[in-house]
Inverse folding.
């Protein structure tokens, strides 16, 4: 099998990871590292054995595909130019800065018959993959995603930085359009929100509660999913999952718990998660989610199929993220139209003492 000739564009934190994994992949030939910063690109090129270039225009004739890990503000321009030259693209999330830009890329890639994939890498997390088939008819989910302040991605807030991962997963699991969004957020470190909470109501009745923080002293990446058949916890950080499945008697309302005698109460209280709500811990084989993302990208190009996270999925997640941001911006903290509003939660004016 001929390896896929690929360039990595952008050598920030994620770009370096993409470059290292692409260099190690058996089905990929990492041709070039592209970045305007000479010292950085040469260092990454030396580490990976690829050549370095200041501009992707220098290497487009040598590659079939590219991974774009530039700042988000450059995504539309860079991806559009790559697609125009016949290059398949995997672009980091968020796909673009606006939905209009995202729609333009999705439509253009379709006209060019090219793969456009978006880097919502949690879709490839083994914890999610291990329970994916059990997450049918999702009715409610809640997610928590928290980290310390990394001083990266300061051009966007926590919604576009972290919460968008869970927005994408929620959209894929609910399999329905969002009908309503309510949210609030708070800025701490700069002009953009660093803490956010959003509630999504889907047209099919599914509900999602999403919480994200990038100023947390305790990291977390987890999701709880409720279906008519049971409950599932997904631990993205530790790459494991737990399922709780009611017995058939419970599911069909055949067990009258209010009529249990003392012995039954004692037994089931001690063995609730063994006999009634059967708990199962799942530790799937360890895989690298970004490497799996690369594999899906390469295979979708070779097989002329849609990737697991196509451009349209990135566009849809961005559209909901924009609704979350709009709700955050319009939130009134004092319950009045003239009070504090949006993520900039200034200190309230103290009340004067009477007299």
């Amino acid at each position: 099998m001929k390896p896929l000739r690929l360039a990595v564009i952008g050598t920030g934190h994620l770009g370096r990871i993409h470059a290292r994994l692409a260099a190690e992949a058996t089905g990929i030939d990492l041709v070039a590292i592209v970045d305007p910063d000479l010292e950085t690109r040469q260092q990454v090129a030396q580490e990976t054995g690829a050549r370095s270039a200041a501009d992707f225009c220098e290497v487009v004739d040598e590659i079939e595909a590219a991974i774009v890990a530039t700042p988000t503000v450059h995504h539309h321009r860079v991806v559009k130019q790559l697609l125009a030259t016949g290059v398949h693209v995997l672009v980091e999330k968020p796909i673009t800065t606006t939905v209009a830009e995202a729609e333009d890329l999705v439509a253009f890639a379709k006209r060019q018959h090219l793969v456009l994939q978006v880097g919502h890498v949690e879709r490839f997390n083994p914890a999610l993959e291990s329970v994916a088939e059990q997450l049918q008819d999702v009715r409610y989910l809640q997610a928590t995603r928290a980290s310390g302040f990394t001083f990266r991605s300061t051009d966007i807030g926590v919604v576009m930085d972290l919460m968008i991962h869970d927005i994408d997963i929620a959209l894929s699991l609910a399999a329905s359009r969002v009908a309503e969004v309510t949210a609030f957020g708070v800025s701490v470190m700069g002009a953009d929100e660093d803490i956010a909470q959003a509630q999504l109501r889907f047209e099919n009745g599914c509900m999602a509660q999403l919480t994200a923080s990038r100023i947390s002293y305790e990291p977390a990446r987890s999701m709880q999913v409720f279906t008519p058949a049971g409950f599932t916890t997904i631990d993205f950080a530790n790459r494991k999952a737990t399922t709780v499945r009611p017995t058939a008697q419970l599911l069909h309302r055949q067990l009258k718990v209010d009529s249990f005698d003392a012995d039954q109460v004692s037994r089931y209280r001690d063995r609730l998660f063994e006999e009634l709500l059967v708990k199962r811990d799942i530790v799937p084989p360890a895989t690298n989610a970004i490497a799996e993302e690369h594999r899906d990208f390469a295979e979708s190009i070779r097989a002329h199929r849609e990737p697991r996270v196509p451009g349209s999925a990135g566009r849809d997640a961005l559209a909901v993220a924009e609704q979350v941001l709009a709700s955050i911006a319009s939130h009134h903290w004092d319950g009045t139209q003239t009070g504090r509003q949006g993520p900039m939660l200034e200190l309230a004016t103290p009340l004067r003492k009477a007299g």
Q: What stands out?
A: The longest strand covers residues 178-186. The first helix runs from residue 13 to 24.
